[in-house]
Amino acid sequence: MPHEPEFEYDVFISYSRHDQEWVRDELLKIVEEVGLRAFVDFRDFKSGAPSIKEMERGVTTSRKTLLVLTPNYIKSEWCEIESIMLHTLDPANRNLRLIPLLKTQCERPLRLGALTHVDFTDDADFELAWQQLLTALAEPLERTAEKPPEVQAKLNRSASYIAKRIGKYKSGIAIALFVLLLSAVGLFYWVLRNPAPIGSIAVLPFVNESGDPDVEYLSEGMSESLINSLAQLPHLSVKARSSVFRYKGKEIEPRQVAAELSVQAILGGRFVLRGDDVTLNLSLDDGRTGDHIWGEQYRRKKADLVSLQKDIVRNVSQKLGVPLSKADDQKLAKNYPENVEAYDSYANGRYHVLKLTPKEMQTGIDYFNKAIAIDPSYARAYVGLADAYRSSAIAGEMPSKDLFPEAKANAQKAIQIDDTLAEAHAELGFIMSWYDWDWRAAENEFKRALELNSNDADTHWFYAHLLSNTGRHAEALSEIRRAKEIDPLSLRINANEGQFLLHAGRTDEALASLQKTFELDSNFWLAHLFASSAYIEKGMFDEGIAEARKAEEFSGPNTHPIAFEGYALAKSGKRASARAVLAKLLQLSTKRYVSPYCVALIYNGLDERDKTLTWLEKGSEQRDPKMVFLRVEPKWNNLREDRRFQDFLRRVGLMP
How many Å apart are CA 392 and CA 406, to the nearest integer? Predict the structure, then answer.
C-alpha cells in the first residue's frame, strides 16, 4: 500500500471576499460542526492577506480544497492559481482534492468546468447539495470515527444546525426540516460506517445467451447505453466502452478486471431474448474483495426495453451509493427515445458503424436513418449519423466533401433538439477541426462537451487532437492522458499518445509509449504507423520501412502507411523503390479516393518541391483531413520557410 500523506487540515476554503459572510456563518460552521479541520483566510493566513505563498500553503496542507465559485471569484487570479496548483498535485482530480462549489450561476473556466461541482445556487435543492458536499468530503470524515461518542454528538448538533439554516433559503415547512434532519444524520452515520464508498465502476459487455447472433447488437447496445448513462452521474468514474469491450467473450474474474482497470466495482449481465420476452440478469461485484454486492433479474417485454434501461440505471446508481437527483433523472431520460423501435434501430446502427469498414458503416447509416424516420426528435440518432459520416471519411478514407457536410448537418440537428447532449457538441467540434479548420469554434464545442460530461474519453481524445495539431503539446498530452484514464485499454487513445509525443519532439518517449500499445495488441495498425514515423525521424529508415509495411498490412484501405514507406525509402537513398511506391499510390488514385497529402509526402521525400506543393494544393482544395498535420509533422520541416507552404498553413488556420 502506498504511504498516505499526512495533512494539517482537512479542508481549505477559497472564495471571494464578497461571500465571506456566507462562508463564515454557513459553510465554515457546518464543516467544523462535523469535526473537520478547516483552513480559511481570515483566520489562518499568517500574512493576513492573500498571497501566492499563503494560497500554496492552504492547498498543500489540506486534504481537500473547496472553491466557492461566483463571478467575482472567477474573475480573480486566485481561482486559476489554486486550480493549477491542485492540477499539479492531483492531475486528474482522482482523489477529489478539488471540489468546486457553485454559489452563483457563472461560466466556469475549462479546468474547473470539466469537474463535477456542488450546486448551491438560489434554484438548487439545498438538502441534496449539502449531502453531495459532505459525501465528497467523506475521506476526511473517516478519521472522526476514532471517537464515536464525541462524533455522534457533533453529528446531532450539525443536523440540527442544517435544519435551522435551511429555512433561510426555503419556506419553513416542517416536513422539509424533518426530512433534512434525518438525511443529514443518516448521511453522516453512513459515512462513518462505510469509509470506502464506490466511486468507480466498469460495466462489462452483457453476454448474449439468446442463442441468436442476430440480436448481439441489442446486448451490446444495452451495455453501451448503461455505460453512457452512468458516466453522466456526479462523483462516479465509469470506464469507457472500448476498454471494457476488450473483455467480450472472455471468462475472467471480476477482481482481475477491477485490478486491470483500476475500478472498485464490476457490473456484468446476461441477456436473453426469446420471441418478445427479454430476461436480463445483472450482478454487481466488489472489485477489491470479489464479494457479491447486488444482483437482480429483470423480465420484460421487448416493447418495454426503454423503461427497463431507465429502471436499471436508477437501481444500479442506488446500489453504488449515488442516488439520482431529480435533475439527474431528467437528464438521463434524454438518453432514450419513447419509441422502442427507434432505440432498436439506433442500437443496430451503432453495432455496425463500430466495425469501421465502409460496408458496415453504410449499413449503420441506414439504421440511423430508420431510427430518425420513426422518431424525428431522437437526438442521439443524429449524433450516430454524424459519427458514421465522419468515420467513413477518416477511417474509410473517402472524399471529405461528400461526407463531412452531412456529418455537420446531423450534429447541428442533434444540438438543435438537445443542446445538453455532450456527444453532439464533441462531434461538431471534431468536424469543425478536421474539415472546417475552424479551430476556435471547434475548441468552444469541446469545452461545452466537457462541461456537460467530463467523463467522456472520446471528447478528451478529440480535444487532444486539436491541441496537438495547433502546437499546444503540453495541453494535448494532459488531455490524452485524461482520456486514457477513462479508457485505459483503448488502442486508438494509447497509440495517439505516442503520436502526440512524436509531434512534440519527444521521439524516444513516443517509441516507449507505442511499445505499451503493442503489448495490448501487436497488430494495431496505428501504433505501427506512428512507430514508422518515429523511426524515420531518428534516421532508422529500415525500421521505419518495416513498421510502415506492417501498418499497411493491418490497416485496410488507408494510404498513410504507403506514404511513410515511400518517404522512408526516398530518404534512405532507395529512390527507385520510392518511385515504385509512388506509382502504386498514383495507380490506386485512378480507382478510388487517395489522400493528396499522402502523395505530397512521398514527393517531398524525393525532394521534388513543385510536385509536393501541387499535391498539397489539391489537398487544400479537397479539404483532405490529413492537412491538419502540416504544422506539427516534422517531415515538412524542410518547407517551413517556403511562402507557398506558409500559405497552406494559413488556409488550414495553423498560421496567422
Answer: 11
Strand pairing report for 292-301 and 277-286: antiparallel
* CA separation, residue 164 to residues 157, 172, 190, 468, 499 (Å): 11, 9, 22, 52, 57
pLDDT one-digit tens code per residue, 50-68: 566 777 777 788 888 888 8
**What span, in angstroms and rounded, lies between the C-alpha atoms of 199 and 96?**
11
- Degrees to nearest 5, angle at CA 396 with 395 and 398: 120
Write the burial class of residue 21 (CB in 10 Å: 0-12 exposed, 13-18 middle, 19+ buried): exposed
* Strands 237-238 and 207-208, sheet pairing: unpaired
Contact in structure between 552 and 565 (CB atoms under 8 Å): yes
Q: Cell match 462531434: residue?
A: 427
User: What is the residue whose three cell numbers read 452512468?
Assistant: 230
In this prediction, residue 173 has a pLDDT band, given cuts at 50, 70 and 90, of: very low
> 559-605: per-residue pLDDT in tens?
999 999 999 999 999 999 999 999 999 999 999 999 999 999 999 99
Q: Calculate mean pLDDT across residues 267-272.
A: 95
Question: Which contiguous run of DSSP H or E holds residue 530?
Answer: helix 525-537
- Tens of pLDDT, residue by residue over 420-470, are 999 999 999 999 999 999 999 999 999 999 999 999 999 999 999 999 999
pTM > 0.85? no
For 4, the grid coordinates are 498516505
Question: For residue 73, what is its C-alpha cell?
Answer: 471569484
Q: What is the Cα–Cα distance from 124 to 36, expressed in whole angstroms?
A: 24
Asked if residues 416 and 391 have their Cβ atoms less than 8 Å apart, the reply is no
Please report, for residues 217, 244, 249, 269, 278, the alpha-carbon distance to residue 209 in angstroms, rounded to integers and kept in the order given: 13, 19, 11, 10, 11
pLDDT (tens digit per residue) in 373-419: 999 999 999 999 999 999 999 988 999 999 999 999 999 999 999 99
- CB crowding 128-156: b at 16 or more within 10 Å, else e: bbbbbbbbbbbbbbebbeeeeeebeebbe
Could you read off the pLDDT of 13-26 as tens digits, one per residue? 887 777 788 888 78
- List Cα–Cα distances, 383 to 20, 43, 292, 335, 356, in angstroms: 45, 52, 37, 12, 16
Average pLDDT over residues 317-339: 82
Q: Which of 318, 316, 253, 263 is nearest to 290 (CA)?
A: 253
C-alpha cell at 7: 495533512
- CB-neighbour burial class of residue 125 (10 A; exposed 0-12, middle 13-18, buried 19+): middle
Q: Report which DSSP code applies to 420.
A: T
Task: Please report, for residues 31, 217, 309, 331, 378, the alpha-carbon distance to residue 349 in angstroms, rounded to integers and kept in the order given.
Answer: 50, 9, 18, 23, 13
